[in-house]
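Progress note, sequence design subtask.
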C-alpha cells in the first residue's frame, strides 16, 4: 500500500473502524471540553472517564466547585471532590476550568444572611466573597487554568439581575469578584459566563457590562457563551453575530456549556434558568424508545452548522465545552421537566458516537485551514 493511501485511510479512521477523536480533529482550532461529574472524576464510571480522556483536552466541573459543595458552612470548606477533579485534569494533561465563583444559585443561604437570618450588609458579604475567592482560587493557583468568575448576572432584557449579590453589594460586586480572583491567581484566565447571550437585548446588555469593566481596568479575559441551544434556536447568524461582537471588544470567547435540546419545548421560555420547571406529560417526552432517524439527522445537521460557525471564529473562540459527555448524563433529562429522555450530546447512552459526532468530525475536516 502506498504511503499516500495509508495516510488517507488514517484520516478517515472513523470510517475504517478506528475511533476519531474530537480533540485531535480540532487541535489547530480550539480546545474541546466536557463538564464532568463526580463518578467520572473518581473514575468509578470507567467507560465515560475513558471517553473523557481520549476525546477531550479540557474539563469543567459540573458541580464540585460550586459554592454549596466547597463551602457549605461559614467555617467549613470541603475540597475532597474538587481536589480529585483537579488531580484528574492534571493526570490527563487537560486544560482545567473552575466553575463557578459568584452565582446566585447553588450558593447556601447563610452566605447572604447575618446571624439572625436577616440580609447581610455590604461589608460582610464583600468580605465573604473575598475570603471564598482567595481560598478557592488560591488553593488551585497555577493548576486551574481559567475561572468562570461571575455566572449569570444579567436578565433576559440585558439589565442586571436583582440577585442577592446585586441587592446587598450593588453593581460593583462583579468588578470586585474579578479583582479578588486576579489577586489570588494573576495567571488564571477570568471569564464572565451566561446563557442567551445571542439574544439581541441580552447581548447588548452584556456588551455594555463588559465594556464598562474593561474601561475600569477590571482583569477580565473573556466571555463564556453557555450554548444551551435547541434544534431551531438560536440561529447560526445570531451565534455568529454574538461571537463577532464580543471579539471586537478584544475578549476571548468560549462556548462553555454546549448542548442541543431535541425535545418539545415545555415552556415558551428559551433560556437556561435553572429555577424553572414544568410538569411531565407524555407529549413532552416522545422519544423514550429511541431517537427517530429524522431527528437524529436534524441534530447532526444542527451540530455541523454550529461547528461551522465556531470554526469561522478560530482565534477568538478558544474552547468549546459540552455540558456532559453522554446523553444519559445530561442535565436536560431533568430540566425543565424531570424524568424525560433527551439526546443533546455527541455520545449515546452506551457511550457510542452518534451521527452528530461524525458530522462534527466532518465539519472539522472540511473547514480545516489550508
Ligand atoms: C447553568 C450553570 C451550570 C449548570 C447548568 C445546568 O448553566 O452555569 O453550572 O448548573 O446551568 O446544569
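Output:
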Amino acid at each position: 500500500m502506498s504511503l499516500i493511501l495509508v495516510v488517507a485511510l488514517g484520516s478517515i479512521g472513523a470510517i475504517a473502524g478506528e475511533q476519531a477523536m474530537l480533540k485531535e480533529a480540532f487541535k489547530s482550532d480550539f480546545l474541546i471540553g466536557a463538564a464532568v461529574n463526580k463518578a467520572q472524576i473518581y473514575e468509578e464510571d470507567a467507560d465515560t472517564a475513558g471517553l473523557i480522556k481520549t476525546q477531550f483536552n479540557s474539563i469543567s466541573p459540573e458541580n464540585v466547585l460550586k459554592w454549596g459543595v466547597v463551602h457549605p458552612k461559614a467555617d467549613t470548606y470541603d475540597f475532597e471532590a474538587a481536589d480529585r477533579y483537579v488531580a484528574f485534569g492534571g493526570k490527563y494533561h487537560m486544560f482545567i476550568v473552575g466553575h463557578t465563583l459568584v452565582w446566585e444559585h447553588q450558593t447556601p443561604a447563610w452566605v447572604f444572611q447575618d446571624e439572625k437570618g436577616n440580609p447581610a450588609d455590604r461589608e460582610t458579604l464583600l468580605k465573604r466573597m473575598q475570603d471564598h475567592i482567595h481560598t478557592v482560587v488560591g488553593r488551585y493557583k497555577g493548576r486551574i487554568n481559567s475561572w468562570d468568575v461571575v455566572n449569570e448576572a444579567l436578565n433576559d432584557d440585558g439589565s442586571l439581575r436583582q440577585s442577592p449579590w446585586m441587592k446587598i453589594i450593588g453593581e460593583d460586586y462583579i468588578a470586585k469578584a474579578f479583582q479578588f480572583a486576579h489577586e489570588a491567581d494573576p495567571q488564571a484566565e477570568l471569564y464572565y459566563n451566561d446563557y442567551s447571550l445571542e439574544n439581541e437585548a441580552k447581548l447588548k446588555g452584556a456588551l455594555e457590562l463588559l465594556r464598562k469593566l474593561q474601561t475600569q481596568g477590571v482583569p477580565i479575559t473573556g466571555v463564556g457563551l453557555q450554548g444551551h441551544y435547541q434544534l431551531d434556536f438560536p440561529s447560526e447568524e445570531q451565534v455568529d453575530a454574538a461571537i463577532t461582537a464580543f471579539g471586537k471588544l478584544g475578549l476571548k470567547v468560549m462556548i462553555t456549556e454546549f448542548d442541543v435540546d431535541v425535545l418539545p419545548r415545555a415552556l415558551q421560555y428559551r433560556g437556561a434558568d435553572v429555577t424553572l420547571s414544568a410538569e411531565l406529560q407524555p407529549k413532552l417526552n416522545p422519544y423514550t424508545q429511541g431517537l427517530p432517524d429524522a431527528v437524529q439527522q436534524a441534530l447532526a445537521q444542527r451540530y455541523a452548522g454550529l461547528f461551522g460557525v465556531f470554526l469561522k471564529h478560530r482565534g477568538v473562540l478558544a474552547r468549546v465545552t459540552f455540558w456532559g459527555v453522554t446523553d444519559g448524563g445530561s442535565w436536560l433529562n431533568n430540566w425543565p421537566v424531570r424524568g424525560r429522555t433527551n439526546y443533546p450530546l455527541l455520545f449515546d447512552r452506551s457511550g457510542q458516537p452518534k451521527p452528530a459526532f461524525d458530522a462534527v468530525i466532518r465539519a472539522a475536516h472540511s473547514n480545516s485551514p489550508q
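The two ends are 26 Å apart (CA to CA). Work on this subtask will continue into the next period as scheduled.
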